[in-house]
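Researcher: Next entry in the queue.
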Amino acid sequence: MDSGVAPQTFSRTEGSRAFEAFWRSLRDGKLIPSRDDFRPAKARRFLGDIVLMEAPDEQNPTLRIRVTGQRFDNLLGTNLTGQDHLDFMPDEFRPGVLATARKMVELPCGLWQISPAHLVRGYATNLEITAFPLCADEGGRQYLLSQILPAGGLKPASLPTNYGVGIDTAVTHEFIDIGAGVPELRVEAA
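Model: Structure for this entry, 190 residues:
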């Protein structure tokens, strides 16, 4: 998919680093905090830009979006709660996205990336995505907690998917070591 957003050189923003510090504050001596450790009252600064999704597993290879912040919804022009993140990706990128999400939970590690996105209002922009795993809740579901920020100006573009929103493969990304190491940069689908 041609994003219509000019290639740039990107580096992590202070906002991304502040979100990492917030996530680390939830750990309370554990390598990974649990879903129950994430309390919205502790995250007021980040709530508008948060996306909480279920991590994929063998029985459910999806990335179901459970919570989205208001600023994120306003940026996209829609609320994606309840949707599968994979529906907004071109088919050829889905196996790699799933493999990356699984690695974040299995290793575990965080992820920072810049991904071009087409928005409902007919614009394209780059998104800075910073994501970390959360251990299973009482139902056994693991989660990925993300902060998603705009990382470039808006540019007119046509919508590439039937869903009104499209997210392209990352133009740059790096895994974030949370204490267990990081996988090789390229994660191949199983």
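Model: Helices lie at 14-25, 70-76, 94-106.
Researcher: Noted, moving on.
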